[in-house]
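Q: What does the assembled structure look like for these inputs?
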Amino acid sequence: MSAPTRVAPSGAAKPSVKSDEGPSLIEKVLQVRSLGILAALIVLVVVTTMQNSNFLSSQSIRDILLAASIVGVLVVGQTVVMITKNIDLSVGSVLGLSAFAAGSVMKGADGAPIVVGILAGIVVGAICGLANALLVRFGGVPALVVTLGTMYIFRGIAYLWAGGEQITADEMPSNFLKLGTATLLGVPVLVVVAVVAVVLAGVYLRRYRSGRDLYAIGSNGHAAELAGIAVGKRILLAFVFSGAMAGIAGVMFAARFGTVDAAAGSGYELNVIAAAVVGGVAVVGGVGTVWGAALGALLLTTINSSLPVLQINQFWQQAIVGALILIAIAADRLLAVRAAQQLRKRSAHVD
Amino acid sequence: MSTDTIEPATTAQPDTAGRTSTVGRVREVLAGWDSAIIAITVVVLVVASVTNPDFGSSRNFTFLVLDLAPIFLIALPMTFIIITGEIDLSVASVLGLSGAAMGWMWNNGFAIEMIIPMCILLGCLLGALNGFLVAKLGLPSLAVTIGTLALFRGLAFVLLGDQAVSNFPRAYTSWVTGTVGGTSIPNLAIPLVVAAVVFAVILQATPLGRDIYATGASDTAARFAGIDGARLKFWLYVVCGAVAALAGVLWSLRYSSARADNGSGLELAVVAAVLLGGVSIFGGKGRLAGVLAAVVLLATLQNALRLEDISNEALTIVTGVLLIVAVLLPNLLKTVRTSAQRRKLQNAS
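A:
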């Protein structure tokens, strides 16, 4: 009754096509999908650079990557949750609470190693994630409702804790703030953190059995349960992971901006979900990759930075994001229909 | 996941079989989440007026009605949509875009008598776009309306930028904030009550209402019963757009300020109120009375806490806790009930 050790990569729990001719059809479809975003990103960068060659300067690239890094970390956690057919609306509030926790710890303990602040942020985030997880797992309450509720609760706790106060840059030790500006071989540390998160989660989801389990759960939870997958445990861990990632994002937020108040990260949840959806992660579960979602986050950030260069009114930014989301889900549907038709043709041929 | 959603609206009816006392009582509580929320609302209203004399003042009552009006209005069609098993997260952006369009048209010399119907028509079109994508193309409504949430809000900013339009005719702005004759009944209260009655009658007492429950309980079963669920959902989105646009007009008139960011974030407050009112996010379950009680409850708490000088932020915790408890409690009671039944069966055998 053990689950197959090698599920076809990216094939989720859908019946993978047993064919000898290279990668499965679904895998091809997913590649097309990611390539589409990559192509959009490249076109955008090329057009913008033609307008102003400074757009590809190392400073400009660094700015874009820095801006994308916080959403990038959040989107990794969100993707893992969304693949299991759940959603985490509380990430913005968890970010705010963790940022405030990290800031308070660093402010209070002068001279303490910065690891303390980082850990404080991550632990607070993971605890918030655990609260979500327990409510989803044992309360039998859908994740949309739980995380909508905890979105309010965590934000409220941050407000009560902060009591209208702000933690400013000069209250935090400089070595903590340096995290926000430090570089590793010329790459900002925050970007390195985001890339490491994307790579680790990407490899885990693709190569590890428990990672594949998440796709199975999202595709058909009941079937996954029957196949012997510990559905409850996996979903629980997915939420704790998302919370911890939001905690890391909170620490990054505090280090980067230097000023933290209780409103930090308000409204981020929708940006993060937008990035994931544009990146091909389906809200109906079972589909999507961390790479795609990270590309989505990068695309949305790049749009933001290229609008002024293209001399397009900044006010268009949100409308473009909205249109992109709609195009992305429509394209996903189209690809899914195509793939289904192909599969039907093939199985007809076999018969 | 939604195996237990087949008993639309009958949940509020008393249990026919007598049952043992515990199980019966549990059933009763289960059956009446909307009665519970109405009771809680009444208690909060009474406690607030007794402990704080300012709360009952006619001035404060007017403010209370003005504060709850947008959520109250949008919650009506939102309840219908959630009962059909879908969701509309774009309502606050429709509200904002309608307000921005109103300001833009006013700046460009349109007459206000012309502007208001145009805004509502715009709302219908925005709702029709949602409805087309969800009902006709079958795309997931959560993703679609997150997309249109960004799109519509973005268009509002494109239209109005960061300016505020504020010189609407006094006759209109003072009507919205005024009261009926010499009484302390706010003008707005009358259309709100009328709208609530119309929506409640449609949902609870017409074939259309039954269709809405049936579609939410099981799309497939409803189709076999001859219900065109896609058409139904399409028109619900259109109505929701129109109502949200109307709320946008009222919002701009109330604050005498049409801005692109009017009502940002309101969508989650509306959804929270609907769910708190006992509507199941899976569809097929819930009643309008509970939702309206939840809207009043949240507005009352906010108003009362403000009078007590307790920060608005404390209220966000209350909102969140209430929301989770509202959904958690029936589940816990169900667990208790099933284990009680199992024990009874074991004893019998």
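The two ends of chain A are 29 Å apart (CA to CA).
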